[in-house]
Structures are given as C-alpha cells and as structure tokens.
Amino acid sequence: MFQRRWARVREGLGRVGRPSRSGRQTLALIGKSTLAAAASWYVAHDLLVAQTPAFGPFSAVLIMQVTLYQSLLQALRYMAAVCAGVIVQAALGFLAGPDLLTFVLVALIALAIGRWRRLGSQGTQVATAAFFAFSTYSASTGNQQRAEQLGQIVLLVAIGCTIGVVVNLLLWPPMRYRSAEAGIHTLAGDLSALLADIHPALREHGFDEDEAQRWRRRAADATSLVSQTRAALRAAVEGRYYNPRRFLPHNRRHKAFDGYREVIDALERVAHQTASLTRTLYQWPRNETGTDRDGFLRDYADLLEALADITDRFSVIDEEHLSDQAEELCEAATTAQDKRARLVERAEDTSLPLGDPSRPYGILLAEATRLTEEAQHSCDSLQHATANSSTAGG
Q1: Is the entire prediction scored with pTM above 0.70?
Q2: Per-residue pLDDT reduced to its tens digit, 205-214
Q3: E strand or H helix at 281, and its extent?
C-alpha cells in the first residue's frame, strides 16, 4: 500500500515538472502582435496620414494567430467581413442618406450576413465594420469625401492584415509537431500510470472504495485529455501549411501525421474502456472473498500489467520511429492477448458466477476482452498507417 501511495506522489511531482510550451507561445504571440501593430500604426498614421489609423493595428492584432495558416484564414475572413459591412453601408447610405432608418437597415442586413458560416468567428465583424463605416459616413461631408473615407477603411484593414501575416511569416511560425507529440505522451502516460497503479492493488487484493474512486477520477481526467490531444494534432497539421520551416531537413519527415491520428484514436478507445473498468471496480462488492476470487484478481492484474506496458510504449511514441515501434507494440499486444486467454480459461474453471450480471466477474471479463481487442486493433492500424506512409514516401 505504501509503495502505491509513493508511486502516486511521484506521478504528481512528475506532472508538476512537465515542461509547458503555452507560456512561451503566448509571449511569442504578444511580441508578434506588438510588432505588427506598431508597423501598421506607422504606415497608417505616419505614411498615409489616415484620419482613422487605428483600423490598421487593430486588424493586425485581430488576425494574429499561432500558426501561419490560421493567420491567413482569419485575415481572409476578416477582410471579407469588413468589405461586406462597408458595402452594405455604402449602398444604403448613398441611396437613403445617414438617418436612423438607414442605420436600422444597415444593422439588420449586416447582422444577417454575419451569420454566414464561411465567415466563422469573424462574422460579427460585418456589423462592426458597418457601424464604423456608418459613423465615418455620417461625419463626412460630400459624397466624394464619404467614398474616400469608406475606401480608406478597407485599405487600412488590408494593410493591417497584410502586415500581420508577413510578421507571422518572417518570425518563424512554429511547426507545433512537438506539441502533438507531447499531448500523446501525456495521455498515454496518464493511462499507463493508472493501469500500473491498479494492477498491484488487484494482485494484493488491497484496494478499497476510496482508492477505486480515485481511479475513476483519474480515468475521467484521461478521457478529457483526448480532445486536447486532438486539438494539438490539428495545430500541428495546420502548422505545416504555408510554413517555410517545413522545408528544413528535420521537419520534412512530418507529413500527414497519419500515424499520430491512429495513436490518438487508439488511446481514446483505451481511455473509455479504462473508465468503464474503473467504474466496475468501484462497484465491486466488498463481501467478495475466496480462493477463486483471489486467483481471478491475480490473473486480471497480469493482464492489466501487460496493457500498462502497451500504453507506456505509446507514451514514448515518435513519428520518426513509428514503424519499429508499431512492431514492438504488436508484440506487446500479442502478450496481452495470451494473458487474456489465460484469464478467461482459468475463470471458466472456477465456480465464479461469470454469467450473473449483478456480479463483477463477467463484466470484468468483457472489459478485458474489449481492452485487448482495442490494443490489438491499435497496433494493426498503426502498422497499416506506417506502411502506407512508407509506400507514399517511396
């Protein structure tokens, strides 16, 4: 019991000591945004002597994203939203004049256009641009001055977006593949640590309700990590688009990240099955005793130990060595299959109520089957993905 508690303490300390890139990414984004805003202000205020120069730096900061792909995407969407808002205001303003009824119509049409899903999060900028354009239009005198001011808004937004994208391009946008690897390593490491904590307790028959409840919480935490890991993978994939760093020799090996996708899919299934397993252990009847029960738990512990080995291998996965690691994982999955077969065979030779749905034994056997099948399927899928990648590369 003391060893398991000490293992949990070490695991907690390990989590605290894990390096995080989010702080550095945030600082880099702040620095890029500041530089882009300053350059946009200089162009708009000092060179163009614009009456509303703030549109430039505002646009540069608004479209600044971690990846170059997202910066380009947001810049295009923002430009489309601003142009739509200005066009709506210009059309209605020149036709009806700058009165309240015109403003109501501008707001109505701009808000409707902003609902277009292709604009994404920039949809709200249609109405914002229309309102600013209406204010500028109302403050101007004469149609020529009004047209010049509305055109200047579009020009300043284009300048700000262009400067923002250029700054992100020139200041080495991150590839983010390390974040994808880190996410996979964290998820697999948490699952491996959980299984490694469970199987000694089963072997010693020493777990109680409180400990089973902690296992449930940890399994739920691991399940919640899946979405974060997928987000990190999407960022890694997007980080390659239009990124000049992808041509560097050490970055060329990262292509479609197919192997990573297979790994995340595998870990998601294992996480859900582990959560189901811990729920069954939490509901374990405390009055269960006997030699058959102890033998069942020992065999089950052997299987979980083999599964912990598999997830531990996932925690050090590296796309550059996926082919070799996939073979090792399949060997470990074969070992898990053998231990599951031995578990089932010995359980069937006992007097345990395997067919009673109100007792845990049959449910645990079903969970064992699902976990080993997921492990085997994961390894087969990973081998298939690496084989396809090698064929495409050849």
Answers
A1: no
A2: 767 788 889 9
A3: helix 258-282
